[in-house]
């Protein structure tokens, strides 16, 4: 990767695990991710997870509304509303959502960076493992 998808001046990839650091503001703790620089598969997976979360959140919030015998609710209306909530959640996740996709992307990229760095340090011969000298 040539350019980092996490904007400079915000949480660095190596500092993502310190969300609870005292003295830092929420703006400093949240990474700003440029989704155009992230691999499409990772972006789609992160947005899918956020869409599932938002869909579940909307479903749970709808269950808190008391039912009334005067409602014009039917099983068809419930199915339609569920489908509408699902599409709304997908659209919201693609448009930025609540920031969960950015968190997933930043965490995944940090883990990938750490994995590449540690596996590269362990193997001097490029095979990915350690070898013993005899």
Q: How big is the Rg? A: 21 Å
Q: Note the gap between the termini.
A: 37 Å
Q: Structural class, from helix and strand content?
A: mainly alpha
Q: Beta-strand level of the residues, as a percent range?
A: under 5%
Mean pLDDT over the full residue set: 76
- Give the strand tally: 0
Order of helices and strands: HHHH
**Alpha plus pi helix count:** 4
Q: Level of helix content?
A: 40-55%
Task: Report what the structure shows.
This protein has four helices and no strands. It starts with 25 loop residues before the first helix and ends in a 12-residue tail after the last helix. It has helices at 26-29, 40-63, 75-94, 100-122. 53% of the residues lie in helices and 0% in strands. It is mainly alpha-helical and 134 residues long. Helix 2 (40-63) runs antiparallel to helix 3 and helix 2 crosses helix 4. It has a domain at 39-118.
Layout of strands and helices, then pairs:
Elements: H1 26-29, H2 40-63, H3 75-94, H4 100-122
Helix pairs in contact: 2-3, 2-4
List keywords for this structure.
mainly alpha, disordered C terminus, 134 residues
What is this structure, in a nutshell?
It contains 4 helices and no strands.
């Amino acid at each position: 990767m040539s350019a980092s998808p996490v904007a400079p001046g915000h949480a660095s990839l190596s500092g993502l695990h310190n969300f609870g650091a005292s003295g830092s503001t929420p703006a400093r703790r949240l990474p700003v991710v440029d989704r155009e620089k992230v691999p499409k598969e990772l972006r789609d997976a992160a947005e899918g997870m956020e869409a599932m979360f938002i869909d579940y959140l909307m479903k749970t919030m709808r269950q808190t509304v008391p039912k009334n015998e005067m409602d014009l609710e039917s099983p068809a209306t419930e199915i339609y509303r569920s489908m509408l909530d699902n599409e709304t959640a997908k659209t919201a996740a693609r448009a930025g959502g609540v920031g969960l996709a950015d968190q997933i992307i930043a965490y995944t990229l940090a883990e990938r960076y750490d994995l590449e760095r540690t596996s590269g340090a362990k193997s001097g011969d490029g095979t990915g493992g350690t070898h013993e000298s005899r």
